[in-house]
TrEMBL record:
The keyword Secreted does not apply. It is a multi-pass membrane protein. Keywords: Membrane, Transmembrane, Transmembrane helix. GO terms for molecular function: transmembrane transporter activity. Its main location: membrane. It comes from Candidatus Flavonifractor intestinipullorum. PANTHER family: MG(2+)_CITRATE COMPLEX SECONDARY TRANSPORTER, SOLUTE CARRIER FAMILY 13 MEMBER. This is Transporter, divalent anion:Na+ symporter (DASS) family.
Length: 433
């Protein structure tokens, strides 16, 4: 019932009702319910990093980073070098702060570029920039697990089902896939969208450089930048666990601890007479609906793997006969396709949880299957975030495209990217299993 309400009503309110019903029906004891939902490790990461990312975005720091890419002299008079630089900046910012904040940085920037060269909304260059923003903001978000809701949801779900997932393993699988999608996106713009790039040859990157020079960093921006880069550095160090002592130390400490420490110090550190992060304002801007949704996600994903509840056994007994004799590779492909269909109809977090809950028990029960469950889970995580075929798949996409770009104009390029994602995900599972 909660899954149905997630797709038709809201994510937060049904989650609260679901948590209450779990306790009322004594599926979990009160202490276990609180520990497995509100006390989940990933909730700590999201809580701390959401505050920091919001402050960094509000301070305009990442806008300046993005401007640096599109203000390089090499882009002058070279439209597809500009598209490459713009897409790369979007991809990297998406890796750092996720889809939504990346979109908020790049859409105004793209509109400013279009206005400066006389391109109207709906024209080829505008269409190309808008689809590049949608694609690369999500590709970047997928590429790195740090502080991204859906990525951490998938990792936590896999861990609660008994599988070990490290950040290094995550990026080893999905970074090559997303780089492949990055290249595919540029090729689709070049050969499918095919914008008339004549006006883009008049783009002057010197104007952007002058704008950046006129507004240098203040002390608060410098402190926020330093804290953000320090946090990212400690997270990246965990990728080298076992190679040297400092990396092993930070991996042992955990990413949530370093996030809480950095935010705490910035709340204490003064800049221009006030704290770098105003805690009261930061708490007021927290994505509480997302956090409440996370409580329910972590509780249910843990419940899926509990032997005493028998949910996985039931799914295997129910669906096992229907897939008996089907090659494991075909089951993988079916799982990824269904995940893609679901994510175009409902929340990406919901679609990944449903996919993992149904297909992981099935894959583990197939005789002779060598499919690695973690790799399948990560591939499904990627597919769950490539869902923008129809306006209902993401409330952000219609706002980005606007009425000037029709569903028909965006469907074909996006369908190619969706199919490329499924193909890359399938190949990834086959190669790493």
């Amino acid at each position: 019932m909660v899954v149905y309400l997630w797709t038709t009503v809201d994510t937060a309110v049904p989650s609260l009702i679901g948590l209450g019903m779990m306790g009322l029906l004594q599926v979990f004891s009160a202490s276990d319910l609180i520990a497995l939902s509100m006390g989940a490790y990933t909730v700590g990461i999201i809580t701390a990093t959401a505050m920091l990312v919001d402050e960094v975005s509000e301070a305009g720091i990442l806008k300046k980073a993005a401007q640096w890419f599109i203000s390089r002299p090499v882009v002058a008079g070279r439209p597809y070098v500009f598209f490459f630089s713009f897409a790369l900046a979007d991809f990297l910012v998406g890796m750092l702060i996720g889809f939504l904040f990346s979109v908020l940085v790049f859409v105004p920037m793209a509109l400013g570029v279009c206005e400066s060269i006389g391109v109207k909304k709906g024209e080829g260059i505008h269409r190309a920039l808008m689809v590049l923003i949608i694609w690369n903001s999500s590709f970047g978000q997928i590429a790195a697990p740090f502080n991204k809701l859906v990525n951490l949801t998938a990792i936590s779900a896999l861990q609660s089902m008994g599988y070990s997932v490290t950040y290094a393993a995550y990026m080893r699988v999905l970074l090559p896939c997303t780089l492949g999608l990055f290249v595919a996106g540029l090729l689709v713009v070049r050969f499918v969208v095919r914008p008339d790039v004549a006006k883009l040859r008049t783009y002057d990157p010197g104007v952007v450089r002058a704008e950046m020079k006129a507004a240098p960093f203040n002390r608060r921006q410098l402190y926020l930048t330093g804290g953000f880069l320090l946090l990212i550095a400690t997270w990246l160090l965990t990728l080298f666990d076992g190679f040297f002592a400092l990396a092993t130390y930070f991996n042992t400490v955990g990413t949530a601890v370093t996030a809480l420490l950095v935010v705490g110090v910035l709340c204490f550190l003064p800049a221009d007479g006030e704290p770098v992060i105003d805690l009261s304002r930061a708490l007021a801007n927290m994505p509480w609906k997302v956090i409440v949704f996370l409580w329910m996600i972590y509780l249910t994903s843990t419940g899926m793997s509990m032997e005493e509840l028998g949910i996985q056994t039931m799914l295997v007994q129910l669906l096992g006969p229907a897939i008996h004799g089907i090659p494991p590779a075909l089951v993988v492909l079916l799982g990824l396709v269904l995940c893609s269909v679901m994510t175009n109809l409902m929340s990406d977090a919901v679609s990944i949880i449903v996919t993992l809950s149904v297909f992981l028990p099935i894959l583990s029960s197939l005789p002779g299957s060598t499919i690695h469950p973690v790799v399948f889970g990560l591939a499904a995580n990627m597919i769950s975030q490539i869902g923008y075929l129809v306006p209902s798949s993401s409330p952000i996409c219609p706002l980005i495209l606007g009425p000037q770009i029709t569903v028909k104009q965006g469907f074909c390029p996006t369908l190619i990217i969706t199919l490329a994602g499924i193909l890359l995900g399938f190949l990834c599972v086959m190669l790493f299993s």
